[in-house]
Amino acid sequence: MTTLYEWPPTRSQRAKWILEELQIDYQSHPVNLPEGEQDGAEYRGLQPLGLVPALEADGYAMFESVAIVLQLIDENPGQNLAPQIGTSERALYYQWCVFAGTEMDPPIMMYFNNSMRPLEHMHPPGTPHDPTQAALGKRQFTDRAEILSSVLGDRDYLVGGQFSGADILIGHSCFMATFTGLITDYPVLQNYYQKLQKRPAFQRAYDGYM
Ligand SMILES: N[C@@H](CCC(=O)N[C@@H](CS)C(=O)NCC(=O)O)C(=O)O
Predict the structure, then answer these.
(1) Are 105 and 181 part of one and the same domain?
(2) By the 8 A CB rule, do 26 and 58 touch?
(3) How high is the pLDDT of residue 131?
(4) Farthest CA pair distance, the chain
(5) Does any ligand 1 atom lie closer than 6 A to the CB of residue 113?
(6) Which of these, 104, 125, 158, 180, could form a disulfide with 173 (CB 3.0-4.6 Å)?
(7) How confident is the prediction for the chain on average, in pLDDT?
(8) Quick check: CB of 172 below 6 Å from ligand 1?
(9) Residue 204 domain-assigned?
(10) Number of compact structural domains in the chain
(11) Which atom of ligand 1 is closest in space to residue 121's alpha carbon?
(12) What separation in Å is there between the alpha carbon of 91 and the centre of ligand 1?
């Protein structure tokens, strides 16, 4: 049985979205972040940083939301959620998948952590919001949102005219940008994200958080 360790609405939604998209039979194991369950020895054995998501599947356990999406897509090649290996579309698929985790998440989280995150949930506890860091996060998000907007234009999907894991990963960045309000100035991203939200798998994964 596949088990998703999750706590909504976080980056565990990426893993949930791909599980739902691929219609994989899985069970959900909530990791209660406000209660500190992520810091217990048992969960740290699965995810040494105490972050969600983590995944247990037949024969392996893993963490990192981007890697989980890539792995599950690779395990289900018949569902065509990634371009053929070795093609130019595959190059762009890798590019945008990595871009989501390395370029989109950090500025959004920097902004969130320094402007919106409840102080009792700051790490380490008692850390105050830093307006300079919030402004930096917002500026860095701006650069990246402009790049994505010019690539997307009025297209529905990032790569090869077809829905892929890249849309799940960047789509979750759009969720984070919507949650924080950062997406407001980017109609192209809003339009792209609105179309992704119509997918039944998205709706099951983000139920209650749309
Ligand atoms: N690079 C990791 C980041 C995971 C991450 O930071 N998760 C956050 C929620 S979005 C978390 O678990 N935070 C724990 C906490 O706030 O205590 C991934 O993409 O899986």
Answers:
(1) yes
(2) no
(3) 97
(4) 49
(5) no
(6) 104
(7) 97
(8) no
(9) no
(10) 2
(11) 16
(12) 26
Poorest-pLDDT segment among 31-40, 119-128, 146-155, 182-191: 119-128
Instruction: Return the pLDDT at 84.
Output: 97
Looking at residue 125, its pLDDT comes to 82
Q: Average pLDDT for residues 159-170, to the nearest whole number?
A: 97
- Identify whether residues 93 and 64 lie together within a single domain: no
69 lines ligand 1 (CB under 6 A): no
Give SS3 for 30: strand
Structure tokens given for 119: 């102080």
68 lines ligand 1 (CB under 6 A): no
Nearest CA to ligand 1 atom 17: 33
Which domain covers residue 41, as residue numbers?
2-79
Give the model's confidence band at 159: pLDDT under 50 very low, under 70 low, under 90 confident, else very high: very high
- For 37-84, write each residue's pLDDT tens digit: 999 999 999 999 999 999 999 999 999 999 999 999 999 999 999 999
Tokens of 198: 């119509």
Tokens of 39: 């810091």
Q: What are φ and ψ of residue 27, in 5° steps?
A: -115, 150
Pocket test for ligand 1, best of 52, 117, 122 (most atoms within 8 A of CB): 52
- Is the beta carbon of 64 within 6 A of some atom in ligand 1? yes
